[in-house]
Specification:
heterodimer, A: OB fold (Dihydrolipoamide Acetyltransferase, E2P), five-stranded antiparallel sheet, 1 helix, B: alpha/beta, Peroxisomal Thiolase, Chain A, domain 1, 2 domains, two-stranded antiparallel ribbon
Chain lengths: ~100, ~375
């Protein structure tokens, strides 16, 4: 999937339906609402911290983008709920996605 | 719809032992037939195997080992609620008339691949269940002003109850201080807040009304079934302090059984982690939102085994494919008044709650005498 090709390059994209414009998550070639094909939106998205906890010295957070798309991301400084963050690093390591936010 | 009831069941002790999945499956099935030698295996139309194990063709293998030649034989996998989903499938075969008697056997090894949902890449590098449990715990504690010490009572209660269950993995009791001082996994989760994967199996034989009455004088009927899947991915959960799939599955099951939650006398609920138990009690309607811990504290103080009498997942252990079947067997035993030291006060109606993958999918059964 092209989403993963972009992610491997460190670019976080969000699939958008070319027909109904719905943002589709998890990433898919097809829209889960109208079944249309998706294309990738590439920009620097603002995320919002929904919830977080900490393991050792690293925080893991649920981050929401565009009011609908949620991922789990790592953060090195102490997050606050509703804090606005951006993706600082992302990719695929051993078949697993990873996301870091600041 | 024709009635479906429980004819017999078999179990084995849950452990950390290293056995082949086929061996484990056969153990509880054999226990079932040893305890019920009058069962004619030729009457078994279907054999369903509940597991997350990657071994193939397990149902025909179990059938051959147990001396059964069923019409229908296949496996069912749905992570942690594979067991009750298999029971629902058996119910459907019987109520539709495709089968009259169905053997459902669930088994798992301690190293089950079902512990991690690899597909869920929205979780990033945080795919282990301790991360969703930590997020649930943090959110629930903040929403309702619950402390870590209060959540620890779930583990204290369920280990205490598991001590009366000869098949339980846990053989110890713990204090709140023990839970608080156990290994810190994250800021919001200690080791003793967690159920443990283990090796185990459980088998149950379901049948149509006519056959049930032929084989047992104390039949238990499945009168309500509710299932709901809201998503597969953890991050799609709309609430992090309640369980939407459980609310909907519970409502459906109670409606089908024509009962309300206040009529449930005993229940097994899916306490994969401490925080799950109050969230489930609230989502099923046993209490108002935020009051689940009040109920749990009262049950613990009064030694009332109404919720998770066999010790739940925290006390019994969690062999994924066997868990829902083991929960159902416990409620059947409770309703038959054969649960020995775990027996609650003459229950008439019981409930089983079994869920998967951070409550993205729930199954609820109502059982009656």
């Amino acid at each position: 999937m092209s989403f993963e090709k972009e992610l491997e390059k460190g670019q976080f994209c969000i699939p958008e339906c070319m027909v109904c414009k719905k943002l589709v998550w998890p990433p898919s070639e097809f829209c889960d609402k109208c079944n249309g094909e998706t294309s990738l939106k590439k920009e620097e998205f603002d995320g919002k911290i929904i919830e977080f906890s900490r393991q050792n010295e690293e925080y893991f957070c649920m981050v929401e983008f565009c009011d609908s798309i949620r991922i789990m991301a790592k953060m090195t400084t102490c997050p606050k709920k509703d804090q606005t963050v951006k993706i600082s690093k992302c990719g695929i390591d051993k078949n697993n996605y990873f996301f870091h936010v600041i | 719809m024709s009635k479906v009831g429980i004819v017999a069941y078999g179990t084995m002790p849950f452990s950390k032992e290293d056995h082949k999945i086929e061996t484990i499956l056969h153990k509880s099935t054999n226990n079932l037939f040893q305890k019920n030698p009058n069962i004619d295996k030729k009457e078994i139309d279907a054999v369903l195997v509940s597991t997350n194990n990657n071994s193939k063709y397990l149902s025909p293998i179990l059938s051959e080992m147990a001396g059964i030649q069923p019409k229908i034989a296949h496996s069912i996998e749905s992570l942690c609620n594979s067991g009750t989903n298999s029971i629902v499938s058996a119910f459907s075969y019987i109520s539709s008339g495709l089968a009259d008697m169905v053997l459902v056997s669930g088994a798992e090894r301690y190293d089950s691949p079902g512990q991690i949902l690899e597909w869920d890449n929205s979780r990033g590098e945080f795919k282990h269940p301790i991360f969703w449990a930590s997020i649930f715990s943090k959110s629930y504690k903040e929403e309702y002003g619950i402390s870590d010490e209060e959540l620890a009572i779930v583990s204290v209660k369920n280990h205490k109850q598991a001590k009366e269950n000869p098949n339980a993995l846990s053989k110890k009791t713990y204090t709140v201080e023990d839970v608080m001082n156990s290994k810190k996994l994250t800021d919001d989760l200690k080791l003793l807040n967690c159920s443990r994967p283990c090796t185990g199996s459980a088998s149950i034989l379901l049948a149509s009304e006519e056959i049930v009455k032929k084989y047992t004088n104390s039949p238990i009927w499945i009168t309500g079934i509710g299932q709901k899947t809201t998503s597969a991915g953890f991050t799609k959960n709309t609430s992090l302090s309640s369980m939407e799939s459980t609310k909907l599955a519970g409502k459906s099951a109670l409606e089908m059984a024509n009962h309300n939650i206040s009529e449930i006398d005993v229940a097994e609920v899916h306490d994969a982690f401490s925080v799950c138990e109050p969230m489930i009690l609230e989502s099923l309607g046993f209490t108002k939102p935020g009051e689940g811990m009040d109920m749990i504290k009262k049950l613990n103080e009064t030694n009332n085994f109404m919720i998770n009498p066999r010790g739940g997942l925290i006390g019994s252990g969690h062999p994924l494919g066997a868990t829902g079947i083991s929960q159902t067997i416990e409620i059947a035993q409770q309703l038959q008044n054969t649960a020995e030291n775990r027996q609650t006060d003459n229950p008439k109606t019981g409930l089983v709650h079994n869920m998967s993958a951070a409550a993205t999918s729930s199954t609820v059964l109502v059982l009656e005498k």
